[in-house]
Amino acid sequence: MTTISGHLTEAQAQRLLDGQLDPARDAGVEAHALGCAGCAALVESFRALGEALDGLPLPELPVDFTAGVLARIEVAEAAQARERRVAALVFAAAALLGAVALGAAVAGGLSPAVTGVADHLGLAARALRLGSGVLPGLLSAVRGYALLGSMAAGLPLLYALARLMPAPRAQRA
Q: Residue 27 has what DSSP assignment?
């Protein structure tokens, strides 16, 4: 099967070249490549590229190449493990701090203050929710005025900056 445009994808052209077409996934690819000049050129360019790359000499790998790669993998894994430990420690500290604050609020009679803060946070969340319903309409209504205002402020500024720029020098032949 070809793409929406009716032509082969690069992956299909490569599979055709390698002789690895999947009958279920690539039905009609070979017939299309034979009948379409553009797709035939794509397959031919992949063939030419493969031949050119096959002709290049392979550089010798350093003796310690594998050891270097494995060492970098170990360093990366150690860094990830350290980041996971730090994240777990931060989470545990936040949970402990929350538990201590809750315990202090209940035991120390701070529950009215905590309740007040929670109520204010709830009101703020409600205001944000209501504002999110009003703000798009408001911005839509003043969009043109905002554009005109920014142009009115920006054009004189750009004009002044253009006047401050030095004149271009004449090119000598």
A: T
